[in-house]
Amino acid sequence: MSYKQIKWMILIIPTLAVGIWEYARHAFLMPYISMKVGNFLTPVFLFFISMTLLSMLFRRLEQVQEELNRERAEKAALEERDLLARELHDGIAQSLFLLSVKMDRAESRGRGARESADFQELRKSVHEVNRYVRQAIANLRYPESPEEREYQASMRSRIEHTAKETLIQPWIEWSIPDAALSAKEKVELLACIREALLNIHKHAHATKVTIKGTLDGRGWTVFVDDNGRGIHTDPFHLKDRYGLRIMKERAEELGWKMLILPMQRGSRVEIRKEAHNH
């Protein structure tokens, strides 16, 4: 029942009820109910209608009004978050990208060993800041309905969203309960999965990607498999794999084990939290 319908019912029901009562009283009940008693019963009857049916309508009206106010507040908050996300994307993210391009040009001119090491450290910092900004942009964009928001809060949905950002459509097998991961673990694990997908998109030329998360007692394991070109050397020591090195460092800070393993076809990124880690 809409807000407008409830208001019209509140206006019409008392008038209609009193009209029917007065008509019935004068047409059929006059031999049984005197005028004095009838005049006394009319406000009693109206009071009974107000305390039962009208009170229910008023409660429903208050609920509808609260829902409307909540929707307005949520819409305003979503608009502010979306605006902030756009400002982050158009401002900081684009500036970081431009800075990365300029660093590439400066590094290509040729420098000594010391300058080259400084450039690597700078590139690493830029890459890490860019990762944090991208994660902040993703976290700012919430869906509108409560049902969608609850789904968005799940790790599986966040992985799907991350995969869309990296232009990869993986097959996802996820059985790790959200309660098994802390808020910090969710953020860092998503960042690791995103970096793995970006690396696959840039270097592996894979046609199939699988993301699998399994629970092992109080620990868990996440696999990101692809059927791409595979690996032939330690990727953590390659010159341009800053993201992978940062990902491994962040995982080790949380006490996780991270490996990149060759498979018969393609490669596997494995992130594992042992049961004794908290």
From TrEMBL:
Residues 54-81 form a coiled coil. GO terms for molecular function: ATP binding; phosphorelay sensor kinase activity; protein dimerization activity. Its EC number is 2.7.13.3. The keyword Ion transport does not apply. SUPFAM superfamilies: ATPase domain of HSP90 chaperone/DNA topoisomerase II/histidine kinase. GO terms for cellular component: membrane. It catalyses: ATP + protein L-histidine = ADP + protein N-phospho-L-histidine. InterPro entries: HATPase_C_sf, HATPase_dom, Sensor_HK_TwoCompSys, Sig_transdc_His_kin_sub3_dim/P. Residues 80-141 form the Signal transduction histidine kinase subgroup 3 dimerisation and phosphoacceptor domain. The chain crosses the membrane at residues 6-25, 37-58. It holds the Pfam family HisKA_3. Gene3D superfamilies: 1.20.5.1930, Histidine kinase-like ATPase, C-terminal domain. It comes from the Bacteria. Signal peptide: none annotated. It is an enzyme of class 2 (transferase). The keyword Ribonucleoprotein does not apply. Residues 188-272 form the Histidine kinase/HSP90-like ATPase domain. Keywords: ATP-binding, Coiled coil, Kinase, Membrane, Nucleotide-binding, Phosphoprotein, Transferase, Transmembrane, Transmembrane helix, Two-component regulatory system. This is histidine kinase. It comes from Paenibacillus rhizosphaerae.
